Amino acid sequence: MKRVLSGIQPSGKITLGNYIGALKNFVTLQDDYTCNFMVVDLHAITVPQDPADLREQSEAVAALFVAAGIDPNKANVYMQSHVRQHAQLGWLLTTLTSMGELERMTQFKDKAAGKESVGAGLFVYPALMAADILIYNADLVPVGEDQKQHLELTRDLAGRFNHRFGDYFTIPEPYIPKVGARIMSLDDASKKMSKSNPNAGSAIYLLDSPDEIRKKISRATTDSGREVKFEPATKPEVSNLITIYSQCSGMSVAEVEQRYEGQMYGPFKKDLAEVVVGALEPIQQRYRDIRESGEIRSILRQGAERASEMAEKTLRDVQQLMGFLPE
Ligand code: TYM
């Protein structure tokens, strides 16, 4: 069976953008691939984290994976730090990565912009991400659009390794959804919806209450026009809301446009809020059940155990190919 790997950071609350761009697709892929889905705590600490928050968010995100529909008997769900081989391969790949390549990463440039001091971890982060993927020889990596550049670097590093040390790594393909790969902020459609945006009204979080969701959607910016039409270049705000509607209802973009033909933004937004509430309610219910049951720790343990087996084999092969003495 072909292999899938992806991860989500436990920094801040996970957003509807994370869900539509990534998590929802994890669930779809689990039936046809050998899947590894991790909560990437090693990546989260590339910016400062409060230890208690990190612990809580790690467990919350893992529980959300399962609540969203990942079946731990089909896919491995685990913490990145519990599979130690990620960090080990990360170091090996860092030595194959050039400073220039890392300097070109737009996510690094965005996160480092205006900072007086930037952590070295933030800089080398993409080499660790490459290790996450290559350690399982993943064929497919479901991600949102913002991770595309990191995927390209991963492909380059795999090719470089294969060229220098022998054909070993699979060159992974990104799996980026056609609709919903970049959900935008509710208050500013030029920015992606993001966990790190300090304005809580800019993002819908998966654990927002129905009333919070209704309030955020009713306040979402639109334009001075009147048509519910999908035209990202000229109507970015409304197009973003249509995308969310489509992704949370299962209707196509064209079907959403048709349904609201001749209607104003008010009724469209009202319905959208109910569509989002309806999509998130069952996830929230399952989330509460999973947290109460306390089963997440054993799910993570089992996931890490299975993932480690695959990862250890790769690490040994890679060390041998690179010329390390066997233990
Ligand atoms: P992170 O935690 O920022 O985001 C998790 C996933 O959500 C997607 N995403 C979005 N998709 C659509 N619209 C948005 N507004 C939006 N915001 C986020 C991201 O593209 C991502 O797929 N570096 C990664 C985590 C990572 C990883 C990996 C991913 C570490 N190792 C290996 C894949 C494979 C990150 O920071 O994602």
From TrEMBL:
Lineage of producing organism: Bacteria, Bacillati, Bacillota, Bacilli, Bacillales
Motif residue range(s): 'KMSKS' region: 192-196
GO molecular function: ATP binding; tryptophan-tRNA ligase activity
Gene this protein is translated from: trpS
Gene Ontology biological process terms from the UniProt entry: tryptophanyl-tRNA aminoacylation
Reactions catalysed: tRNA(Trp) + L-tryptophan + ATP = L-tryptophyl-tRNA(Trp) + AMP + diphosphate + H(+)
EC number: 6.1.1.2
Keywords: Aminoacyl-tRNA synthetase, ATP-binding, Cytoplasm, Ligase, Nucleotide-binding, Protein biosynthesis
The UniProt record lists the keyword Ubl conjugation: no
Annotated positions binding ATP: 9-11, 17-18, 144-146, 183, 192-196
Protein name as it appears in the record: Tryptophan--tRNA ligase
Binding site for L-tryptophan: 132
Compartments it resides in: Cytoplasm
Pfam family, one: tRNA-synt_1b
Reported function: Catalyzes the attachment of tryptophan to tRNA(Trp).
Alphabetized InterPro entries for the sequence: aa-tRNA-synth_I_CS (IPR001412), aa-tRNA-synth_Ic (IPR002305), Rossmann-like_a/b/a_fold (IPR014729), Trp-tRNA-ligase (IPR002306), Trp-tRNA-ligase_bac-type (IPR024109), Trp-tRNA_synthetase (IPR050203)
